[in-house]
Amino acid sequence: MSALLQANALSQTFGGTTAVKHLNLSIREGRCVALLGPNGAGKTTTIRMLTGLLRPTGGSIHFQGEKAGEDIRRYIGYLPQTPSYYGWMSGEELLIYAGQLCGLSGRMAKTRAAELLQRVGLSDAARRRVGGYSGGMKQRLGIAQALVHSPKLLILDEPVSALDPIGRRDVLALMTELKEETTILFSTHVLHDAEAICDDVVIMAAGRVAIAGTVEELRAAYRQPIIELRFEEEDDRSIRWSHDVLAGSKMIAGGASVTMQDGALVIQGEDLDQLRRSVMQMIAEDDVKVSQIKAGYTSLEDLFMKAVGSGGSMDRLIP
Ligand SMILES: Nc1ncnc2c1ncn2[C@@H]1O[C@H](COP(=O)(O)OP(=O)(O)OP(=O)(O)O)[C@@H](O)[C@H]1O
Ligand SMILES: [Mg+2]
Q: H-helix or E-strand containing 300?
């Protein structure tokens, strides 16, 4: 399947700072793509280049079916990270204004505004001043504005980062509905939000793509069986036992690595059933006083932390 948007070796330098370095990105039609990364990773810079607001210092961007010399901005709807509105306008007036800027007649713009207000759940607030909208309402209005010209690709820069839990939930619910109709690229530094709604993930660190793939691919490729043990405090035998396991003088069958994290002994291996069996057997045989045992898999959160944590581990993870 050909990509809706393809960016090749995209770079951006501000004076002496390289914000984005040789970034390759492919957005497939119909997908919801999360652009993840910590503050300063280069998400906004990437997005501003994709939307045509910032000319790349290197690389190229292609939109599916674009004709030579065509302005691809007509295919893209964009919600900036910090949008600003005329607070004295009503939501309806603002959308009519946006529609007219896109070339719609007054009547068409009014019809489109009503449709969009309905679509983002703001019909009841249509006549209220935008200055009095809550954060979540403003973001939903911003999404409506980005949809005015029926774009093929909707790009949202941190659509939920500044919102309280209720605003967050509302905007994520709207995005979940919209992703059935449009291709979406959105940035966030919260993995949980990304995992909740996206199909594909691109993790950026220091201006580069550290990891990219579908959510399923990343889960399958990076998740590892893990067992976490906590012991009764001040039990000498348990403390000695955990030290022995940590030092490797006591081996757990199937345990590939052992670390101590926040006072818990963390054992990673290849096969969860085997790991659990051998851990339980050893605990019983050595009569260790365990207060808590947790068995499961490393999460995408662990992967994200690994990818953005340090330059060294990032290089290791670049496919
Ligand atoms: N106009 C500019 N002039 C100079 N440096 C810039 C400019 N815009 C961004 N930068 C730098 O480029 C780097 C990437 O910034 P960018 O805003 O793209 O990151 P981000 O991933 O969007 O971060 P955040 O999560 O904080 O929004 C940062 O080091 C930033 O200081
Ligand atoms: Mg940003």
A: helix 300-309
